[in-house]
Amino acid sequence: MGAPGLQAARAKMAAAGVPEVAIETFAHYYRLLQHGETGMIPESSIEPVDIPRLEDVEVTEEAATEALRRTAVIKLNGGLGTSMGMDRAKSLLCVRRGLSFLDIIARQALHLRSAYGATLPLMFMNSFRTSADTLDALGRYDDLPVEGLPLEFLQNKEPKLLAEDLTPVSWPDDPDLEWCPPGHGDVYTALRGTGLLDDLIEQGYRHVFISNSDNLAAVPDPKVAGWFAQSGAPFAIEAVQRMPSDKKGGHFARRKSDGRLVLRETAQTLPEDQEALADLDRHRYMSTNNLWFDTVAMKEVLDHRDGILGLPLIRNVKTVDPGDKSTPEVIQIESAMGAAIEVFDGAALIEVGRDRFVPVKTTNDLLVLRSDVYEIGQDFRLTQVATDLPYVDLDADHYKMVGDFDQRFPEGAPSLAKASSLRVEGDWTFGHGVSVIGDVDLESDQPQRVAPGETLGNG
Which pTM was predicted? Predict the structure, then answer.
């Protein structure tokens, strides 16, 4: 029968209508958690990797076009942007010219369809919190849905577990806080549970490209599609070289025991291995979270494993209410979709440029994206036009939340094309047409205003 906590969690998920395959996947991870599995990957068990570069790969235009015509696109769109003070889908944020992330993603797909004669289905994996807003925003694009495939499917949900006894938490004041998403590794479970994976295969789509909706640089590029198709790999991830700002992030490695590629996240790194994690000369590559997989290979592996891909466990310790540290400690069972690389024999990595990795996780990132560092072309691709990417650090007390951020940039972002860095401490409001050149530090303990047209710094 299993542990009482697992029985209670199963019953709770079933009552909420969670699909059976998702319940069984949760049970798999629960048992690992119960038996003390931490998901840690010791440094002694892995070695660095060397990988090919996309710029060195030859792909004919014919091969690229054919590969794109057999590709479907999935955008992970379950995040609310709560860390930035939002209570709806983060992809609804305005980027520029009145266009949101969703607008640009939709127009990127429509342009590629026209340019390459590809059907290129675009689907969003939403959460129950982002579904309605997302579908409403996409309603203006009548030609976006593809017949026989949905515009969205929902990620699953699972109960948060009390850390003290691994029973599902009860929180009557806000029952939504009793639930959490299972991490983006759930995308494979959701594709199977909804029947979408079978539908894609039946309709002739051999490749799926998955990326985050907050990364506008993650366009389903024909050359990458062509490379993946001719590689014969069942699964692949686009990687970039790590930079000093990435020292605390995850990286790729090769497992010594079986030679398979692995993705080690920070949460899977032992305290004594933190120095090795931060060694950019040893572990050079990190994930863009731009993934490609072969639909037939994915189905075969899932069928063989009874629907449970068996990704490494991520044990995430939080409080019931993330915004209130006095609430009880809970464990959220998660998995990372990139970790599927270790499941497949013959999985591959390809090094791409940073021009395919422009995630927006904070308002610092949002300011750079809204500035003249980037241009959005007629194909709605994001192009970095500035020579260097500036470092931006805005005072969290005044700029962390989108509402506060927008109030302080009422006329739009300053010019950052010639900036090296912009550090702001205190409460500064920027007028129209401000330019930042070189390294600029602003500090004040009183509210200040940068006058319209002012140039800060001189390089």
Answer: 0.94
